[in-house]
Design a protein that fits this description.
Blueprint lengths: L5 H10 L2 E11 L5 E11 L1 E2 L5 E6 L3 H8 L2 E7 L12 E10 L3 H10 L4 H4 L4 E14 L5 E5 H4 L6 H17 L1 H11 L8 E5 L3 E6 L2 E6 L7 H17 L1
Antiparallel strand pairs: 1-2, 1-5, 3-4, 4-7, 5-6, 6-7, 7-8, 9-10, 10-11
Length: 243
Amino acid sequence: MSEDTPYSVRNLLRRLDRAALATALPVQNDTGENGTWPYASLVLVAVDHDLAPILLISDLAEHTKAIRGDNRVSLLFDGTAGLDQPLTGARVSLVGRAVETDDERLKRRFLARHPDAAMYAGFKDFHFFKVVPERAHLVAGFGKIRWLSMAELLPAPPPPALVSAEDGIVTHMNDDHADAVGLYASRLLTLPGEGWRMTGIDQEGIDLRAGGTIARLALPTPVAGPDEARKALIALVAKARAA
């Protein structure tokens, strides 16, 4: 599939677990003049069902100080890793506003994606933020450049039934069907290693992790609820066993 379709953009955002965060950092230069400067830094990210990035950042970080003063941000998702010519690959800059959140579901989704973050997620100086996206700038290679509105990227709202059932589906697959999750990685994605776990499921795919390696597997067809998700996961197991 072409890298400049809305589906491909959604897939790129969802399959990456880190991004470059750009903020407007208040600074005072050597002449004493006040102002702001563009400031970019690396952050861990989990993308919610509605494509809103979830961040866990410390009050001590420069980017957090910047957000407190101006919550307009941009996140660069770089999908060019491993390419001989990186500029031929796709990358997406998502533009939006960062808002602090206490939503427990968002916290769980982030920590499922980044389990090691649990050791500091409860610290008083760490807070979760949701970036409410407004539009995206896609560069999918030479001459393939355009802005996309959120209506283009996500034509319909995420299915509420699947969003609500996600935690239970992920827990059930990891606790009761770890062998199936391993087959998804080894047979369908031809990835090495053991200890693969599911970290999330949305209407178009599932997210996997083993140590520091992440992966994404597309569902056969989009799903709207737990029953459809169950059938799709069973179909993927059958496909993996037949591979």
